[in-house]
Amino acid sequence: MSLAKVYNEIKDCVWSWVESVASCVGATEAARLFQLARLFSSSDQELQQSAQLKWIPGRLQEWLLKKAIQVFGERTWKYQDSLPPLPVPPLKSSLEKYLESVKPFVTAEEYKETEAVVRQFEVGIGQSLHQQLLERAKVNRNWLEDWWLDVVYLRSRLPLPLNSNISGSIPTFDHIWPPQDGTLMDRVPLHLWYGLQMWKLLRKEQIPVDKAVRTGQPFCMDQFRKMVSTHRIPGVTMDRIVSHFRTEAEGTAPTHITLLCKGRVFKLEVIDPEGEPLTPPELKRQLDSVRQQCENAPEGPHISTLTAENRTKWAMIREKLMTMDTVNAENLSVIEQSIIVLAFDDAFPKNHEENFYETLAGNAQNRWFDHINTIVAYRSGLLCANYEHSPADAMVHVYSGYFINSQLQRNGPHWKGSVPDRVIPQPEELVFTIDDEIREAVVQAEKTFLKQASDFEVICPSFTDYGKKFIRSFKLHPDSYMQTALQLAYFRLHGKPAPTYETATLRQYYHGRTETVRSCTMEVVSWCQAMLDNTVPAEERKELMMAAFKKHIQLMEEAKNMLGFDRHLFGLQVLAMGAGIPLPAIFSDPAYSKSGGGGNFVLSTSLGGYTPCPGAAAPMVHHGHGIFYNIQPDRITYSVSAWKSCVETSAEEMSGSIQHSLRDMRQLLMSS
């Protein structure tokens, strides 16, 4: 055995011992909390209070925090190998819960028919499929992972914009960067630099491990690997995901970004040889160089527009591009490996609502929709992100946005550091060889995009009457509270309940992503009916509301512990399809789609956390709404989307009804 190998083994053994001791004395958890405070404190005062180091001078305090994190901090992916595998719920339990979920949407006679179908499935083909699923779970730590990615995302042939892409915004316009022409080139470098600090933390494995609040159970951090340098590559029948990120321990990782400007594409090296992000002034020099090259020059061919096309068409065009010229293939590889894509846009959004519309539906000519993260920098000085949803869920993007927003709040809108005296790499233009067929494909791709984009509407108001603090004062769960408000809002407008999807995390399991909470229950329907019946006394309405809250909390807890049923039924359906047998009647029964099964949820909803960073997405169905919401101490910010061509839905009307519901609920709470 070589001396170096002996040294490394001794070092690993000692480090393991230090980690074990640190965990026993609570130093590991303290270091995790210190790191979270450094990442998300929005002021020095908040950081000092969180770290409980108010008596230590600022510079020494920062040094101590860094050392504590370095010595005692847990590596980001430390627990991956010890996470529990994704379990398979009992078949009988899943089917009973499914039957309960369809009740709000069927008549008594229809329910009897559905119950008969379910019972037949339970004693028949369902038993065989369930056993196959159990066998799959024995050899796969996550039996759902590949199926979910392939069937739900990668096999879809729909264009990514408004079908798979989502958007996230941060409220810099509220506290440091109001919309203002001429500010873009001062703001983008600082925003980009903070984003690259997140990249550096990932490289060093210094993102704190997420843990369950009550139990301390570590969460799976795998999706954080997909935050950067991850790309969805189109295929003729199925796409694929490639990720080029590596930690420092794993090897080299891409150190460049792609910049889209005036239809042209540029590669910018943004990390120095020591692995440190270039400073904002250095980044600004690079960005200024590109802007100067593009100013008063003919626009480029807008190759990125092709990523808005139907996936099969884009796959065929991409293949043609690569065979036309090896340089084209090299250029595409550079873009695919980029840490992020940055796009300059001449639109002038002034708030979250306009940010979301412009980012999701504004301009296909300067978005690379395949990339995990395209940051769009607008002429107004605002920035907004377009995310490709398939590699990772919204929570990792909220995490990044919240970090950038907190750092800007705490450190201010201007760079305060020094600038090294060194030569930095110049931007490199990626020039594509194209022909008339490719030019026409770009035109057609934009038409495809505009046809759907012109039908999209989204709003993003803030309800400021109250927020989390008021809700918690009644010992209520804010998320259950908001979900119940959404049910009343829809019921009041339409006189009927809405099949509703809410995201529940499965991250306590290995590579866990999401389970469905079907938050439209018989309990909440009874409450909605009572709220619209003037003869029902306030006390009874309040009791029904509390019952609805309780039911939602129960469903959320079950879903987080893989005791929901939607992913289970999905797995059984995939097995049936793969076996080539006739589709079991449970999946073709009208109650299945009526209650939201098969992607037919009228309300597609998600809590974006208790941060000030909202998100937005298109509705799941034509007659539905997409609703993201963030619950802050004094307000609730939410986005509502809809399709203009649907006469049944209106984002404005739904928003008004949500606020009406929230006010009714407050009045009900305070009435006794």
From TrEMBL:
A Pfam family matched by this chain, by name?
Carn_acyltransf
Extract the SUPFAM superfamilies matched here: CoA-dependent acyltransferases
Q: Which InterPro entries match?
A: Carn_acyl_trans, Carn_acyl_trans_N, CAT-like_dom_sf, Cho/carn_acyl_trans, Cho/carn_acyl_trans_2
Keyword Lipid metabolism included in the entry's annotation: yes
**BP terms from Gene Ontology:** fatty acid beta-oxidation
Task: Quickly give the catalysed reaction.
Answer: octanoyl-CoA + (R)-carnitine = O-octanoyl-(R)-carnitine + CoA; 4,8-dimethylnonanoyl-CoA + (R)-carnitine = O-4,8-dimethylnonanoyl-(R)-carnitine + CoA
User: Where's it found, cell-wise?
Assistant: Peroxisome
Q: What enzyme class is recorded for this protein?
A: transferase
List residues traversing the bilayer: none
Main location, first listed in the record: other
State the EC number(s).
2.3.1.137
Domain of life the protein comes from: Eukaryota
Q: Which family does it belong to?
A: Belongs to the carnitine/choline acetyltransferase family.
- Report the PANTHER family cross-referenced here: CARNITINE O-ACYLTRANSFERASE, PEROXISOMAL CARNITINE O-OCTANOYLTRANSFERASE
| Name of the molecule in the record | Peroxisomal carnitine O-octanoyltransferase
The species this protein belongs to is Branchiostoma belcheri
Q: Which gene encodes it?
A: LOC109478823
